[in-house]
Amino acid sequence: MKETFYDASVGWNLRNDGSVINAKINTPIAVISWASGTQIRVYYLDNANFICERAYEGGATWVDGSLRTYNFQAAPFSQLAASIAGDNNANLRLRVYFQQADGRLQELQLNGTWGRSTRTLPIATLGSALSAFGGLASLPDQWWLYYQDPSLKMQETLCPTSTAPWVQGGYRVPGVFRPGASISAVGWGSASEPRVAHLLVYVINEKNEVVESAFEQGWNNGNLIAKGTATDSAVSAIQWDGGGRQIRVYFQRGLTLLESAFDGGHWNGLQGNAIPIYH
């Protein structure tokens, strides 16, 4: 597995020492970072489908995290999602999500040591894509998880507090989706707006289109972001502040990895004129 990076002075590059892990073929991948990108965790499956962790803590070296030693085994078809709340060792909370053989989703929690949550999550279609986030400034104890249910609808489940049960959310997106269709979600909220969340969810439908659903006061019906993705392309989104709300959405067209960018006012790459970054 390789690592690419973006530097404002040189653009996109493939890191020379970018070999991060050796994983099973077609492993799912989930990544989180904090502390301005100086702390990175990569989650993946080994050849026996045990969930593994690779860690970057600054400098030039990647090291193995502790998660593999706990022997949490996913179904062979499972995808992965990871989420983080907090930004330092005192308040850091990590979550990793996977699917077991009967289709039910599972949550792992790092609170000093790794453990499996006792809370019940939904059953998803086998091989469902997963996307998760939590710990927003406005809702620090709430977690969201997005997945595809057995009827192939894209769904949202959320956990209002660290001890409350998971409940179905209000996210709905029209359209038809292939089994395992990709989904990626981002969210934010400021401490000055308690109990307010801003959510964006990106999916790839059967027409090979990237569709965005947004939650402000409620969910909209979806906006077209890009056309002509590769069949069964994955989609991945990131969000940050910087001169206005910044959103980046990544997907594949042909053999090229593409980026659509929202810089606070409009999309660059709307309806398919995306930016090639590496191929």
Note down, in words, how this protein is organized.
It is a single chain. With 279 residues, the chain is mostly beta strands. The protein has one domain: Fucose-specific lectin (Neuraminidase, 6 Propeller). 0% of the residues lie in helices and 46% in strands. The chain is built from no helices and 23 strands. Strands 19, 20, 21, 22 and 23 form a five-stranded antiparallel β-sheet that branches. Strands 3-4-5-6 form a four-stranded antiparallel β-sheet, with no helix packed on it. It is globular. About 2% of the residues have low confidence.
Q: Specify Rg, calculated over alpha carbons.
A: 18 Å
Q: Would you tell me the overall average pLDDT?
A: 87
N-to-C CA distance: 14 Å
- Number of helical stretches of at least 4 residues: 0
How many strand elements? 23
Under the CATH scheme, which class? Mainly Beta
| Total individual domains | 1
Oligomeric state, counting identical vs distinct chains: single chain
Biggest pleated sheet: 5 strands, antiparallel
CATH topology: Neuraminidase
Give the % helix: under 10%
**Shape, per Cα inertia axes:** globular
Q: Output the CATH homologous superfamily.
A: Fucose-specific lectin
SSE order: EEEEEEEEEEEEEEEEEEEEEEE
Unreliable stretches covering 5 or more consecutive residues: 270-274
As a percent range, the share of strand residues is over 45%
Q: Could you say what the CATH architecture is?
A: 6 Propeller
